[in-house]
Amino acid sequence: MANSELANFLLSKVDQLPAVASLANLWTSDGKVAPDVMDRISVAVQSDPALASQVMTAGGGASVQSAVMALGLKTVESLMVAKAAEDTATSINPETLQLMQGNLWRHSKIVGFCCQLLAKEVGYPNTNDAFVAGLFHDIGKAVLNRYAFEEINAVLRVTSAKAKALFTAEDEAFGFNHSYIGAKIVARWNLPDQIREAVEFHHTPEKATVDVQITEIVHLGNVLVNWIQMKLGLKSNFYPLRPYILDKFNIPTERLRQIAEEANEIVQSTAK
Questions:
Q1: I want to staple 131 with a disulfide (CB 3.0 to 4.6 A). Which of 70, 116, 140, 227 is the partner?
Q2: Which range, of 39-48, 106-115, 134-143, 251-260, averages the lowest pLDDT?
Q3: Do 176 and 140 touch, CB atoms closer than 8 A?
Q4: What pLDDT is stored for residue 38 in this prediction?
Q5: What's the structural domain count of the chain?
Q6: Which of 64, 145, 163, 146 is nearest to 112 (CA)?
Q7: What is the spatial distance between Cα 5 and Cα 108, in angstroms, rounded to a whole number?
């Protein structure tokens, strides 16, 4: 499938994803978490029974985090297994896909909590936004895994053979990467611009203009989680870190590791 055809095909699948406009009600018109957020969540879930049931089972009760985790989980679940006739990758094994999506969602939750902890560490005021941006940073991978399975596996082979970052290999093969698709999903959900931008540029934070710091937090959070999950270190070619961010935040390396491990422990404890 040609690059433009693949992009159009994937974007058509994004357009079919659940568009829960009520989620946008958790933020004010200027993109900040609403001061009456608890009341807004109550209204949101009452107007969306499916979301309400997901929120109640997501853990954490009525909160921004449980609401967005429920929505994200619902979307990832919807991408796990579908009718083979709808696929371009008809050879995909449903169990393999489910495992991939499950691992992706676990990684995303850890990054979400890591970003929230980093936000607190550096004094970023909107810690909920940092959590949401981290949670959805890789949501584009769910679409690629589901609808471009063969193409993404070919790219993964390139990353392994050439020790190249996945997003770079995706750009070279497709003309876009998972961050682009993820930003389209977040935009469809009407989430604030700073969250959309953090998702779109979490590998290239120097491109951020709306809220530079939250994008830098998500960039660093993703690298840190991969550091402890993949044992790759902070200078891996697979998940390249922009070193200026380390200088800017000035957090000791050992403290960065502690933050990532704490995020991992939070997710492990909530999974029990």
A1: 116
A2: 39-48
A3: no
A4: 67
A5: 1
A6: 64
A7: 28
- Amino acid (1-letter code) at residue 240: P
CATH number, residue 107: 1.10.3210.10
Domain that holds residue 203: 3-271
The least confident of 128-142, 155-169, 178-192 is: 155-169
229, pLDDT greater than 90? no
CA–CA dist 158, 168 (Å, integer): 10
Sign of the dihedral defined by the CA atoms of residues 23, 208, 76, 261, in that order: negative
pLDDT tens-place string over residues 212-226: 999 999 999 999 998
Provide the H-helix boundaries in the chain: 3-15, 37-46, 49-58, 64-78, 94-122, 127-135, 139-147, 149-162, 166-174, 178-188, 193-200, 212-230, 243-249, 253-271
